[in-house]
Amino acid sequence: MSSLNRTKDAIADAFLELLTERPLSKITVKDIVDRCGINRNTFYYHFEGIPSLLEQTVRYMSDQIIQAHSRFGSPMDCIAPFVQYCTDNKKAILHIYRSVQREVFLTYLDRAAMYTVSRYVEATTADLLPSESHAAEKNLLIRYYKCTLVGALLDWLDTGMDYDLLAAAQGICELLAGSGKQAFLKCLETK
């Protein structure tokens, strides 16, 4: 790893540390450079400002979820990586989520959820909806389940992550078991 990458990583690490301590609006470039022992020019060499650092940080979080989880055999496999990552980084995630720059977080949350649900739907419907003639129905189902996943995560974040989302999701999955497959099979009937 080059020294430029190490410096950039040090800046991002300092930023994440600060996010666990205080809200985004209370973090300055001075705080970040003091934390990692660099000067302001070095910070601005790598980032235009805190908004660009935030975007890179959230993109990195999203990419970590995507790279670490490529196989989804059940709906719980889709939600668990998000819940685990958010739980492991609770204070930083809540500070980002509650900031005026929330849209950056939501964009990458949506991206990671779309990837996760798409992979799950593709894996579970490969033998049920193999033809391109069902692409529109498959895309509709992907969007529906992506919205469900994002909605559950947003509700959880809105409450400050104060309930066990995995237990709630498990209960919902048990109640709705087989409904996804039924929807896929119904697509076959309509063509």
Can you walk me through this structure?
The chain folds into two domains: 1-47, Homeodomain-like (Arc Repressor Mutant, subunit A, Orthogonal Bundle), CATH 1.10.10; 49-190. The model has no long low-confidence stretch (mean pLDDT 84). Helix content is 76%, strand content 0%. α1 (3-21) crosses α2, α1 crosses α6 and α7 (102-125) packs across α8 (135-158). The termini are far apart. The radius of gyration is 20 Å and the shape is elongated. The chain has helices at 3-21, 29-36, 40-46, 50-68, 75-88, 90-97, 102-125, 135-158, 165-175, 179-190. With 191 residues, it is mainly α.
Distance between the termini: 53 Å
Number of strands: 0
- The overall pLDDT, averaged over residues, is 84
What is the total number of structural domains?
Answer: 2
Strand content: under 5%
User: Rg, please?
Assistant: 20 Å
- Counting DSSP H or I runs of 4 or more residues, the number of helices is 10
| Approximate helicity band | over 70%
Low-pLDDT sequence parts = none
Instruction: Name the structural class.
Output: mainly alpha
What overall geometry do the principal axes of the alpha carbons give?
Answer: elongated
Order of helices and strands: HHHHHHHHHH
Major sheet attributes = none
